[in-house]
Amino acid sequence: MPRIIDGNSMNITGVKIKEFRKAKHWSQQQLSIKLETLAIYVCRGSISRIEDGSRTVTDIELAGFAKVLNVPIEKFF
To answer: Alpha-carbon distance 38 to 25, whole Å?
Structure first.
């Protein structure tokens, strides 16, 4: 089933994910590897698409980003 999102962006958290990742001086690949330790599989290319707003983010993925980046989940909004 297609996901229906108003506007051009498929998520509202990608910019913040990128900001927090860069603050830790992590590459997208490093972030992907850290997520894998939580059994959350988001490849480097998907992280790129999340950060540029062209891919949606699931709730489980967002919880994983918050945990590995050590940022309260509400800071992504």
So the answer is: 20
For 22-42, b where at least 16 C-beta lie within 10 A, e where not — what string?
Answer: eeeebebeebbebbeeeebeb
H helices of the chain, where?
A: 14-23, 28-36, 44-51, 59-69
pTM of the model: 0.89
DSSP 8-state code for residue 70: T
For residue 39, pLDDT beyond 70: yes
Q: What angle do CA 4, 38, 76 make, to 5 degrees?
A: 45
Half-sphere CA count of 11, side-chain side, radius 13 A: 24
